[in-house]
Specification:
The structure is a single chain. By secondary structure, the chain is of the alpha/beta class. An eight-stranded parallel sheet has the order 2-1-3-8-7-4-5-6, with helices on both faces. Helix 5 crosses helix 6 and helix 9 packs parallel to helix 10. The two termini are 21 Å apart.
């Protein structure tokens, strides 16, 4: 299974910044050490043509030439720098590559990504470009050239609503957006996903898994995807500084397994990205994300056994 990374493009953040930049290199290193059969691949950079499939040309230009308004930079949460531009391009390129690899191999992962707060004309919440929607639209374009209309389900299980993804996909019947998120958390101005499920603060494993199961049952009635893009946020964990939920490590593992089993039962390829994770113990949080990647790797082996001619 391919795992795409861009952690060597490091943002020059001020001391004490709450974005956990170090986690990405740790995640790549631990996957390389612990998960055999996972191929670590440097992410390609997304082009302007790719980015404008989901973003306005004016916004892409502002990001790339450093003319972003101060207010937008503040909403994003990163000071502008050439490194920010390159990392953002690579993070999007990783999701494009992951979705295309998943269609070929059954599964692939972006070891960053999940920048679901980026809207068409502005970023926010540590999200510059929306990697999920760029990846979907670029891959749909490629598939359309081959005579196939690709229907994609976004399963967004980050603790924060995928507002940017919902807004960009709002008028697109080929993309179904499911967001399962904390009711009392960022963003405080919500968009309308195809299916939004809000969770009370303090939500624990049983209630979380019941809500997820109910949401997947609703998707079965409303949409028939050809592929899934899974936003596997670790910020639902009880120890997350920003999450406000009380899901355990065991609950997170069951979450991932339930998503993978649902996809396997429908023979759907899965691209995954890591999204949020702001654990008080950064090392322990990285281990949670390693387990999510391990679950995806197991899914891929099962998917390939179903799809390899005997």
């Amino acid at each position: 299974m391919d795992a795409f990374y861009a952690d060597h493009f490091v943002l020059p953040l001020p001391p004490g910044h709450r974005f956990p930049m170090a986690k990405y290199a740790w995640l790549r290193e631990r996957i390389a050490q612990r998960l055999t059969g996972v191929h670590i691949v440097e992410a390609p950079a997304a082009t302007d043509a790719m980015l404008t499939l989901a973003h306005t040309a004016a916004y892409v230009r502002q990001v790339c030439d450093g003319s972003l308004p101060v207010a937008v930079q503040k909403d994003i949460g990163f000071p502008w720098s050439p490194a920010m531009v390159e990392r953002s391009r690579r993070s999007v390129g990783a999701s494009v590559a992951a979705l295309q690899a998943a269609l070929r191999d059954g599964a692939a992962v972006n070891l960053a990504g999940g920048t679901h707060h980026a809207h068409a004309a502005a970023g926010a919440g540590f999200c510059v470009f929306n990697d999920v929607m760029v990846a979907i639209r670029q891959t749909q374009r490629s598939e359309r050239l081959a005579g196939r209309d690709l229907q994609v389900l976004v399963i967004d299980l980050d603790v924060h609503q995928g507002d940017g993804t919902a807004a960009i996909a709002a008028e697109d019947p080929s993309v179904f957006t499911l967001s399962l998120h904390g009711k009392d958390n960022y963003p405080f101005v919500r968009q309308v996903s195809d299916l939004d499920v809000e969770l009370q603060s303090g939500c624990e494993d049983t209630a979380y898994l019941q809500a997820l199961q109910g949401a997947l049952e609703q998707v079965d009635v409303r949409f028939r995807p050809d592929a899934v893009f899974y936003v596997a946020g670790a910020d639902i964990h009880v120890d997350d500084r920003l999450g406000k939920l009380n899901v355990s490590a065991a609950g997170m593992a069951l979450r991932d397994e339930r998503v993978m089993r649902w996809c396997l039962n429908r023979n759907l390829p899965v691209a995954m990205c890591m999204a949020g994770g702001y654990g008080r113990d950064l090392s322990a949080m990285v281990d949670l994300q390693v387990e999510s990647v391990a679950c995806l790797a197991r899914f891929q082996r099962q998917w390939q056994s179903l799809n390899t001619p005997s």
